[in-house]
């Protein structure tokens, strides 16, 4: 074969849509058009001296796919370009990203503060897992800046939040919270999965670390699991790289390759899904059988003005509360034909779930109500179908209530 020796392009000079097609590509000697898929566990060295240099860091190159792989590295670089981060590390799932981002920073005797409005598994990490290892945690009302200030301690190492929140799409003031936690020398980790990296940039707002479930919009087609952690080079090297290397929550090269393909179409998918989400939210808000609609792109959203400052759009998720509680919500969901019942989100297919019996079922009823998750609430992830077909489907659901 002949070596592919054309100089690599500097994707940092391009706009996001171009970066998502060309960013991070490292072609092999074959000069392939699509990104190469390196399904390998290990790598061969030219000499014992080179192997020794790889392990000391004196020789650049890959050692073992648990903590470094060419296909995974392409995905990490492309995500860093999109997010505006200095560095990124990919993980096997979104929850692996959350766990690594938090566990990589703390030790016994440390303290973590988090918003009370979190995905159920994230609450488990903060409330149950961290305390097993001697890390105390405090949950606060994410909207109440005074509670963030009051919760901080000298041993607080990091704070964690989602915005918009899962499932009721509350929007938290990332910049203000970042200022507060930085005041005691702590870091801020933001789960940005609902907004997507196209609609919100937490690092620009002062966050130290951003995490995603790449399973959601980044893949966006229901194919594979993945996660990613982004931040400064110092943050990733200090808190994340060693943790991944030694504990192994690693993304498979095949999944990294699938996610690279997903990134190529991300802007097109998000633009269409967001446009449809706005139309569906407006339709639902006009219906008498709907108690409330939560969508950051609507003026009746409680944090609409904050969302306009912090986000570039309302994104792809809609939360709605059906009058009549769980029984009415179940009748509504069961009558849908186009929209499928699933606890996943960010897919090309529109999906709906009942949070109080799925994603947040392990919480007590009191805890669910405390974060606004009622028995009549449904979370709708808007897909790529025609918006009018989706509205017709919602009408079928409403007719059954």
TrEMBL record:
The keyword Amino-acid biosynthesis applies. Catalyzes the formation of L-homocysteine from O-succinyl-L-homoserine (OSHS) and hydrogen sulfide. It is an enzyme of class 2 (transferase). GO terms for biological process: 'de novo' L-methionine biosynthetic process; homocysteine biosynthetic process; transsulfuration. PANTHER family: CYSTATHIONINE GAMMA-LYASE, TRANS-SULFURATION ENZYME FAMILY MEMBER. GO terms for molecular function: carbon-sulfur lyase activity; pyridoxal phosphate binding; transferase activity, transferring alkyl or aryl (other than methyl) groups. SUPFAM superfamilies: PLP-dependent transferases. HAMAP family: MetZ (MF_02056). This is O-succinylhomoserine sulfhydrylase. Homotetramer. Belongs to the trans-sulfuration enzymes family. MetZ subfamily.
């Amino acid at each position: 074969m002949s070596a592919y020796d054309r100089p690599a392009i500097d994707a940092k000079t391009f706009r996001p849509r171009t970066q998502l097609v060309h960013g991070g590509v490292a072609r092999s000697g074959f000069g392939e058009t699509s990104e190469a898929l390196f399904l390998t566990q290990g790598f061969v060295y030219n000499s014992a001296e080179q192997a020794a240099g790889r392990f000391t860091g004196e020789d650049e190159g890959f050692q073992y796919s648990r903590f470094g792989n060419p296909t995974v590295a392409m995905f990490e670089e492309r995500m860093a370009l999109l997010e505006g981060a200095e560095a990124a590390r990919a993980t096997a799932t979104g929850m692996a990203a959350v766990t690594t981002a938090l566990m990589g920073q703390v030790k016994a005797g440390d303290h973590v503060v988090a918003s009370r409005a979190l995905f159920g598994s994230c609450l488990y990490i903060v409330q149950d897992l961290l305390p097993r290892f001697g890390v105390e945690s405090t949950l606060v009302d994410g909207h109440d800046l005074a509670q963030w200030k009051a919760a901080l301690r000298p041993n607080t190492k990091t704070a964690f939040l989602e915005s918009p929140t899962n499932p009721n799409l509350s929007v938290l003031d990332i910049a203000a919270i970042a200022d507060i936690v930085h005041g005691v020398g702590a870091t801020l980790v933001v789960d940005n999965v609902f907004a997507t990296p196209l609609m919100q940039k937490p690092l620009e707002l002062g966050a130290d670390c951003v995490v995603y479930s790449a399973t959601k919009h980044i893949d966006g087609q229901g194919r594979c699991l993945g996660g990613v952690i982004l931040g400064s080079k110092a943050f990733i090297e200090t808190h994340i790289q060693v943790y991944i290397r030694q504990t192994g929550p690693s993304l498979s090269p095949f999944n990294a390759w699938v996610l690279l393909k997903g990134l190529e179409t991300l802007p097109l998918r998000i633009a269409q899904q967001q446009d449809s989400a706005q139309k569906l939210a407006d339709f639902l808000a006009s219906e008498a059988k709907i108690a409330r609609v939560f969508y950051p792109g609507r003026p009746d959203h409680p944090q609409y003005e904050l969302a306009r400052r912090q986000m570039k759009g309302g994104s792809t998720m809609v939360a709605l509360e059906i009058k009549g509680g769980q029984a009415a919500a179940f009748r509504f969901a069961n009558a849908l034909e186009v929209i499928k019942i699933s606890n996943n989100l960010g897919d090309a297919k529109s999906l709906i779930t009942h949070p109080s019996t799925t994603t947040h079922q392990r919480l007590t009823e009191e805890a669910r109500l405390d974060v606004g998750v009622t028995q009549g609430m449904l979370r709708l992830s808007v897909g790529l179908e025609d918006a009018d077909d989706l509205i017709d489907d919602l009408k079928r659901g409403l007719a059954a209530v």
